[in-house]
Amino acid sequence: MNVQGRAEATRRSLLEAAAQLFEERGYAGTSISDISALSGRTSGAIYFHYAGKEKLALAVMEELFATWPALIGRHREADIPALEKLVALSFSVARAFRDDVVVRGGSRLWAERKSVDASLPSPFEGWIETVVGLLEEARQEGALGPSVVPRKAGNAVVYAFFGLHTVSEALDGREHIEERLHDLWLLLLPALQATGGAEGRVRPLEFDFDGAKRR
């Protein structure tokens, strides 16, 4: 491995160690020495690559935000109806929050953002715009009920989705997040969809807990 590759490996090791500790202990409960011990890197390496705990916290948050564009783009480009895109995207995001240490660490940092002496980006506006865009696409496909306003419905879906994550994290560490999300879509999809002909409608029970459509 060349010098650049070793440096990148060090940065990633530090980032993942910090994210794990931020999630487990919170920002205030995590020290540079903790990150050094978990990563197996020296404190000097931490200060060389990130200049301190605040910069590491900001890097974790930036990495969290960098996760979403490719994921959203992949789902939006899929050749399926817009509401199916929305359901499938929600399951992919849920799994990231459950399984990805950087996403989990960044999520806790956002919850504790007042303790972090750094300017952190806000996650929710982008998610609202993404969901509203998919609902507007569903409107063009004739899939939304006539009383559904994409902007208002998009807000409600995002609030419900992240509320679900908060409760799931508190109760079982998101262990059953896919099952809970499936239940949420059982409630939301009938309220969103047009009530006309059955052809082309997205039925909640067509989706497994992982968001994959049953064949």
Number of helices: 9
Distance between the termini: 45 Å
Class by SSE composition: mainly alpha
Radius of gyration, taken over Cα atoms and rounded to an integer in Å: 20 Å
Low-confidence stretches: none
Largest sheet: none
Tell me the total number of β-strands: 0
Query: Considering DSSP H and I runs of 4 or more, what fraction of the residues is helical?
Result: 55-70%
Query: What share of residues are in beta strands?
Result: under 5%
Shape: elongated
Commentary on this structure:
The chain is an all-alpha fold. It has helices spanning 3-25, 32-39, 43-50, 53-76, 82-99, 101-111, 124-140, 150-172, 177-192. The mean pLDDT is 87.
Fold blueprint:
Elements: H1 3-25, H2 32-39, H3 43-50, H4 53-76, H5 82-99, H6 101-111, H7 124-140, H8 150-172, H9 177-192
Keywords:
215 residues; mainly alpha
Question: Summarize this, please?
Answer:
The chain is mainly α and 215 residues long. It has 9 helices and no strands.
